[in-house]
């Protein structure tokens, strides 16, 4: 028997993503991004993102169906990001998904964006062994999670107490005069730089928690750059980028490996936009190998926001026989990571 065909819709930030999966097989992943419309503001403007989702949604669904060579009627279940994310942006995806589900008479799963970021790795590397530790690093989140079941048992071990890792990349890029989003240009600039040129701070490095803090690092970089500019000297962008990136990758991988050893878990999955970072991937591979941990990181295109990740988690929920969300489940900008599936508020 073939596995159910699941359509996934993602609209929590600036990417309109529509994915189609069958089991853990990725059939199509259509993406439309409004990133260019936000670039001049140096960050995502919620209302601009919502409007772009509205325009991109139906064409993206059609592109995904065309790519997979299926029709809407063949879809067995629909999953959509219910949260966390930007309220207005989420609302577009949730409303679209409800309309499709109602019109087609198919079950609808309102799912957690963070759990979806973890589930997507299975489309590339097969079923995720349980338990696993997940390091989730994106523009909005930096979390260490213990995953006992992707469909309902995820606990938080620690999280950022201020800026998310991706947010720090975006802010540092801005002060170096690099474009938004800052991750890719810093990653590229860092390849030409010396990661030991400046000793930027590694906050909460040995504090015994699984929390992160990146706001002090961002400020340290800002002060260093300002001092240079005040002295009328050129800013060595590649060295600053490499030294900043080294500090981020060092703290993230150190804590992720420590979480695995502390919890006696030998599988680590890293996901979210920052998991596309080349230095984070390389250092994580090195440190996991030394600690006897099996590392799984999706290919960069699946790390950043996409619809396939939502379809992947939807597929897990369908396979586990979990009941769908109630039809009036809300878009919840603050949906906690422990809530994999959104239901109606009491
Ligand atoms: O997961 P994502 O696409 O959206 C959120 O859920 O936030 O993550 C976006 C973040 C941005 O902050 C972006 O700068 C960062 O991921 N990012 C990277 C790289 N590619 C994207 N950060 C570091 N290195 C990269 N190569
Ligand atoms: Zn994300």
Task: Give the key terms.
single chain, 346 residues, alpha/beta, 5-stranded mixed beta sheet, 12 helices, binds 5'-O-[(R)-(carboxyoxy)(hydroxy)phosphoryl]adenosine, binds zinc ion
Concise synopsis of the structure shown:
This protein has twelve helices and ten strands. It is an alpha/beta fold and 346 residues long. The model has no long low-confidence stretch (mean pLDDT 96).
Question: How would you describe this protein?
Answer:
With 346 residues, this protein is of the alpha/beta class. The protein folds into two domains: 5-120 and 306-319, ATPase, nucleotide binding domain (Nucleotidyltransferase, domain 5); 130-298, ATPase, nucleotide binding domain (Nucleotidyltransferase, domain 5). Helix content is 43%, strand content 18%. The strands form two sheets. A five-stranded mixed β-sheet has the order 3-2-1-4-5, sandwiched between helices. It has a five-stranded mixed β-sheet with strand order 8-7-6-9-10, sandwiched between helices. Helix 9 runs parallel beside helix 10 (278-291). The model has no long low-confidence stretch (mean pLDDT 96). The structure holds 5'-O-[(R)-(carboxyoxy)(hydroxy)phosphoryl]adenosine and zinc ion. Zinc ion is lined by residues 113, 117, 138, 272, 305.
Report the oligomer. single chain
- What is the number of helical segments per DSSP (H or I, 4+ residues)? 12
What is the makeup of the main sheet?
A: 5 strands, mixed
Distance between the termini: 38 Å
Structurally, the number of domains stands at 2
Strand content: 15-25%
Shape: globular
């Amino acid at each position: 028997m073939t596995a159910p065909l699941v359509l996934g819709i993602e609209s929590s930030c600036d990417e309109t993503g529509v994915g189609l999966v069958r089991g853990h097989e990725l059939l199509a992943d259509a993406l439309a991004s409004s990133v260019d419309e936000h670039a001049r503001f140096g960050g995502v403007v919620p209302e601009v993102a919502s409007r772009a989702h509205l325009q991109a949604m139906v064409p993206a669904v059609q592109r995904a169906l065309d790519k997979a060579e299926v029709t809407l009627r063949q879809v067995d279940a629909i999953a959509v990001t219910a949260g966390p994310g930007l309220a207005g942006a989420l609302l577009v995806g949730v409303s679209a998904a409800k309309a499709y589900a109602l019109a087609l008479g198919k079950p609808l799963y309102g799912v957690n964006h963070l759990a979806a970021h973890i589930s997507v790795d299975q489309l590339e590397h097969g079923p995720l062994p349980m338990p696993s530790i997940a390091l989730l690093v994106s523009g909005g989140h930096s979390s260490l999670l213990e995953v006992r079941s992707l469909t309902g048992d995820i606990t938080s071990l620690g999280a950022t107490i201020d800026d998310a890792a991706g947010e720090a990349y975006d802010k540092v890029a801005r002060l170096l005069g690099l474009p938004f989003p800052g991750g890719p240009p810093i990653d590229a600039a860092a390849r030409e730089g010396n990661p030991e040129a400046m000793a930027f701070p590694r906050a909460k490095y040995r504090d015994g928690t699984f929390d992160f803090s990146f706001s002090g690092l961002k400020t340290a970089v800002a002060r260093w750059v300002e001092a240079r500019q005040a002295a009328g000297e050129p800013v060595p962008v590649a060295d600053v980028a490499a030294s900043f990136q080294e500090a981020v990758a060092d703290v993230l991988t150190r804590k992720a490996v420590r979480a695995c050893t502390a919890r006696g878990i030998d599988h680590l999955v890293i996901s979210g936009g920052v998991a596309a970072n080349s230095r984070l991937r390389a250092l994580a591979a090195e440190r996991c190998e030394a600690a006897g941990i099996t590392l799984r990181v999706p290919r960069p295109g699946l790390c950043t926001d996409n619809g396939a990740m939502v379809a992947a988690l939807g597929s897990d929920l369908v396979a586990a026989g979990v009941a769908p969300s109630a039809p009036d489940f809300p878009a919840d900008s603050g949906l906690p990571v422990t809530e994999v599936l959104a239901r109606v508020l009491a």
